[in-house]
């Protein structure tokens, strides 16, 4: 299906030599983001019918095909919405007597026709971000797609809740008086520009579907004065989600909740790790209803802070971070140092390393290494028809377990959570959610630091350059170790978190900068342990590691008013999690890879013609239960699509 093109390309460049008549254009001076012009797609795909775009990953595992109930949250036509407030609406979550559920899936449906760039979008409920996504680039005949995301971890936002809910911050909240269901607010932001050239309008429906496996409908936990959806699931981890482990404790949910003061450690800490948060607080822009709830970070020193006030009976906290790169930093992993870009009009520089970090009351709380998501206009839009790049429709969020900071968060009233992007240039969209678990038996929980050790980021550079050619290498790493004790009705426990990331990058330019090769690899791991007693007996352990390599080769050839660009792209998302309870270990892993190659004729940002092929392989292994899917695409036509539950499928 795919043939190597670089020997032919290099032959043409050698024939051109260094003659000025070839008029070579340095690759770094070309845009990396393009829009499909009318007729750019191969004729075989221009049949006049709208096409469905998709990401062939593991669909949400649902207990039944038909939801027990559904809610349409918002319907909107995003035409010229640039600079406008996000679209908004209200909804009332279903009452438990009308809709008993224990799984929730958000569905984001969109259609568009015409010419348009890819756009970034997000969905917030009560200021909490529940989905970040990007759009497909439409065609004249139209495109449509659907994003289905398991949003059960946001259950506290999808259940009825009385007006006294947040009063538990003073020690458990009011337990008396009339309880009225709270009206929820939903916002969707999708900044789009429509004019005589870019005509694509994005028509969007957002709904949530509720499912029930018949075992454990939502139940009232009266001690908390709130609705609590009880779901026997481990915490979400990275992209894969440890929820794929199902219920490793072999208990139904009622048994787990009855064992809050359980007879065995396995029951007690199964509950600790196996439920969704009781409360999710936004860490977001205070003018979100008018400007969007994400922070727009322009540079390294442009940090943003939000205040949070947490209940006094919180015993566990996870900071979930959403992040995407845009503008001059959209392809940050391919940015050369400023010593190279100062020779060019482009501003896409400052090196190829970025670090998204969080602080709590000015104290470093951890970093994440973002996966290099490629939007549907990235590098070569023909790569992403109809299969989009990894994570483009369901952009991953990243979790920092900040339970060791409970001693800080439980003191006083309000606390500052700060988000920043190390070495960033314009611009990044960053937001966060604080997931909190509340003790149903105690009005207050105590906690204190045992250890806070965080090394500064270590970076080394190796640069060689000769005019427009050069070789630029970079390595970075950082580690942190946090520990604290937390005394709750579960006992006096010690939480230990170890984090480490390593990053390396190589960028080379050859033939007067017309051939560029990029290789980068992020490696990230966290190790969380829950210990008890003077001997620090390990009750539970959660280990997660991830690596995100990407290889990119581009070469440009001059034309008559246009430029020919040939591109090879290979990127990979791999994550693995291990949950240990006593002597039992549960494993889950996910590997998602794409290899794409092709050429295109461009003028400015517009793709006039081209050809491309993409091969995607997705593998998910949940404790020996597998799902594998392979999809091959040539010039927009799906040539092969195979799936299997055989772990040895090739």
Helix-strand layout with pairing:
Elements: H1 6-16, E1 35-36, E2 51-52, E3 69-78, E4 87-91, E5 103-112, E6 120-125, E7 128-134, E8 143-150, E9 184-190, E10 202-211, E11 219-221, E12 226-228, H2 253-258, H3 265-273, E13 279-283, H4 288-291, E14 295-297, E15 304-308, E16 314-325, H5 338-341, E17 355-360, E18 363-368, E19 397-401, H6 406-409, E20 415-422, E21 428-438, E22 446-454, E23 458-466, E24 469-488, E25 491-510, E26 515-532, E27 537-558, E28 563-581, E29 584-603, E30 606-622, E31 625-634, E32 637-644
Parallel strand pairs: 1-30, 2-8
Antiparallel strand pairs: 3-10, 4-9, 5-8, 5-10, 6-7, 6-9, 11-12, 13-21, 14-21, 15-20, 16-19, 16-21, 17-18, 17-20, 22-24, 23-24, 24-25, 25-26, 26-27, 27-28, 28-29, 29-30, 30-31, 31-32
Explain how this protein is built.
This protein has 650 residues and is mainly beta. The protein has one domain (6-644). It contains 6 helices and 32 strands. The protein has helices at 6-16, 253-258, 265-273, 288-291, 338-341, 406-409; strands at residues 35-36, 51-52, 69-78, 87-91, 103-112, 120-125, 128-134, 143-150, 184-190, 202-211, 219-221, 226-228, 279-283, 295-297, 304-308, 314-325, 355-360, 363-368, 397-401, 415-422, 428-438, 446-454, 458-466, 469-488, 491-510, 515-532, 537-558, 563-581, 584-603, 606-622, 625-634, 637-644. The strands form 6 sheets. Strands 1, 22, 23, 24, 25, 26, 27, 28, 29, 30, 31 and 32 form a 12-stranded mixed β-sheet that branches. Strand 24 and strand 25 form a beta hairpin. The radius of gyration is 25 Å and the shape is globular.
